[in-house]
Amino acid sequence: MAIVYALHLLAAIVWVGGMFFAHLVLRPAAMELEPAQRLALWLRVFDRFFRWVWAAIVVLPLSGYALIGGLGGMGAVGWPVHVMQAAGWVMIALFLHLAFAPYRRMGAALAAGDLQGAAAQQATIRRIVTLNLTLGLTISALVAAGRWM
């Protein structure tokens, strides 16, 4: 179970940490670039980062349910685990929407030379990432503090 727990934790760190870095470090630095350069950079960043998120959204539920099973099932875990599970599924749903709608539209707009359209999709992505980052940090804090609550 130690390996399963480590995989679970690492997947969460990669996803939430990547969003933290992108939103609070890369985004302000990228604002100095011209719009065409900035949007092209974001598309390349998303291409690479989303590969890791896809892995995380497979590993997190599988490892999470394995851990719950190892602890005796849903009735044996506390409310922080139930909140983590629900919020995690919301985060996955938000990512799936992001990946299949605004991200694809952003790529298509950039390919067509529509910087305004690409920027609008990037703004939508930013809002979704902000929400997912908030959920991810809240889940992390809740679960970390859960045993003392």
What descriptors fit this protein?
149 residues; mainly alpha; 5 helices; 87% helix; elongated
Element string (H = helix, E = strand): HHHHH
Content-based structural category: mainly alpha
What is Rg? Answer: 17 Å
Instruction: State mean pLDDT (0 to 100 scale).
Output: 95
Number of helical regions: 5
Q: How is the main sheet built?
A: none
Morphology: elongated
Beta strand %: under 5%
Beta strands, count: 0
Low-confidence stretches: none
- Cα separation of the termini: 24 Å
Task: Describe the model.
There is one protein chain. The chain has 149 residues and is mostly helical. The protein has one domain. Helices cover 87% and strands 0% of the residues. It has 5 helices and no strands. The chain has helices at 2-30, 35-70, 79-100, 102-111, 115-146. The protein starts with a helix and ends with a helix. The model has no long low-confidence stretch (mean pLDDT 95).
Describe how the helices and strands are arranged.
Layout: H1 2-30, H2 35-70, H3 79-100, H4 102-111, H5 115-146
Helix pairs in contact: 1-2, 1-5, 2-3, 2-4, 2-5, 3-4, 3-5, 4-5
